[in-house]
């Protein structure tokens, strides 16, 4: 039996997609499980760099592509690694890159061991130290140590406290920014109040304009009534064509006053 070409192409595409997803799953599993032990965790072992060699960011980019929070599909455990551990490792990846990519910081770390604590390899002590170091970096004005959106929130709050001179752990207004909610009934009443207020103001403006137009029309009418006797006396002394010209001139003058 002869197969349709379209079905062959569809089957080939589906097989390619499955192989690609399986390859990605294997790659992420290899990256997540290939992590140094707590005793041997340092910038060189995390980024797989030689101590005396030049810094190559290939491993850093590979880790970021897996550990970056925006790429997390699963909020819980993934490949046997909990979310809290992934967040902690991502902070360590950023810290290791910050040390090895800066020649001065790398030299200080190599000679004196400054910039990386032994407890950063994992566990509560390492997590606390990394979080404290990230907060210190954020206080200095840099956001390079921010791993997740909570870090960016704290970094912004630190900047607001520094700008307003608040160093007591509270925001510029005495507390952290809180979401403000309104009941549905109150929200609807507020909208109705605004709509009624706008309608009243519009009606008031229309009424005021109508009164002004009526007063202007009445004033023009009274002025014409006052001029009628004068016009009659003057017209009696003029000829037919002169009376027509006088009428047109006065009419144009009245129209000009109305506008």
TrEMBL record:
Keyword terms: Membrane, Transmembrane, Transmembrane helix
Basic residues composition-biased segments: 130-141
Chain segments carrying region Disordered: 1-21, 115-144
Gly residues bias (residue ranges): 116-125
InterPro entries, A to Z: DjlA_DnaK_co-chaperone, DnaJ_domain, DnaJ_domain_CS, J_dom_sf
Superkingdom, taxonomy of origin: Eukaryota
Residues annotated as domain J: 40-113
Spans traversing the lipid bilayer: 187-207
Entry protein name: J domain-containing protein
Source organism per UniProt: Apiospora kogelbergensis
